[in-house]
Amino acid sequence: MVNNAPGKSSRGILLTRIGSLLSGDRKWGLLRLIFLVGLGFTLIIASFFGHGLGRYLITLFFAGVLAFLAGMRYILDIYELEKLRHAFRYLFSSFLGIFYPKVKIRGGRIALMQGEVNMLEVIGGPGVVFVQPGNAVLFEGQAAPAAIYTDGTHFAPRFERLQPIALEDQYGELEGISAMTRDGFDVRIGRSRFRFRLLADREADLRKNPYPYTEEAILDMLYNRTVTEQGLDDWSSGVAADLRKVITAYINRNTLDHLTAPQESGADPRGDIKCQLFSPEIIAKLRRRGTELLSVDIGSFEIPNKQVDKQRLDTWQAKWMGDARLTRSYGEAQRLAYQEIGRAEAQAEMLISIMHSLSDLNLRSGTRQSLRDMILVRTAQLIEAMGAGLPHPAEGKKAVR
Description:
Layout: H1 4-23, H2 27-49, H3 53-78, H4 84-96, E1 102-106, E2 109-111, H5 119-122, E3 127-131, E4 135-140, E5 145-149, E6 152-156, E7 161-166, E8 170-174, E9 177-180, E10 186-189, E11 192-198, H6 215-223, E12 227-228, E13 231-232, H7 235-253, H8 256-260, H9 269-277, H10 280-287, E14 291-297, E15 301-302, H11 306-360, H12 368-388, H13 397-400
Parallel strand pairs: 1-3
Antiparallel strand pairs: 1-2, 3-6, 4-5, 4-7, 8-11, 9-10, 10-15, 11-14, 12-13
Helix pairs in contact: 1-2, 2-4, 3-4, 11-12
């Protein structure tokens, strides 16, 4: 048994190398190209020096061409490609190890021109991937994720799909949020914006790695996405769906007046929504997506039914008009009261002035006619002073003497 072990190991290595020669990439593809070129030259030379070898060469050539066309047809059908040349290029580069397709990972996406079809995106490797700073790419094998790479140039092996990842801060928008309030009114929220990023590695050194990440966060981000009727949602759409649920639930729990015209002191509906979006429950839910929410800007509340605004305006108008009438009536009552007070004070001053004049007049030596004249003079002086703003008649009592 000891002597057989090396033999088995050698056979295993030999089978591995034969498999690599048949389906390996890069250098193995170049070896296949050299082998085919050498075989072709050998057959051509043999056809000149050997009689009857030409028909065998033609048979072998057409057999190879038919096998290649069958492979192209298979790839065209299984991947639902629109053009035959895409299948030809993929099979040609995969088998011969030259003219590999190339893509760039930028902004968390595979950067392609409009209408461009790249086999690295449609089928996967083999191919060359250029990852820009602030991005990463996960090579996904047939059974499990194979590797994660950051910025740089990387080779994607055969049958491995590309999953681009954005490490920079991402921005998203929420549009068309519409829900019904607790009292049965439809409310729509204008465009809301939010900022998020991949859950970062808190223990990483930012000076060495400005975009720290954990493999667990990347796997959660890629494999905990939402599946809808249209297919698999992207990362931003999944985060937006979680935020939309929180905002919709808040509208359902509150009345229209609380959302658009709160009467409570210090009420802030938008602030309440932000607090709920950063609550421990929502933070934990986003962490399961490998996501960290950074900021949210809630849009304005809008009421689609214009009759609601008209009714509310009429109600507010009646309230303010009632308050205005009450204030005006109160002012009018105060004005009348002050007029009565002023009239009473004037009468009192008149009587006091007359009394002072009588006290200064010698009643024994005077006649009834002089008394009457004095009262009339003092009354006239007081009325004239009140009307023309002259000094108080009491100041002129010395002159009367």
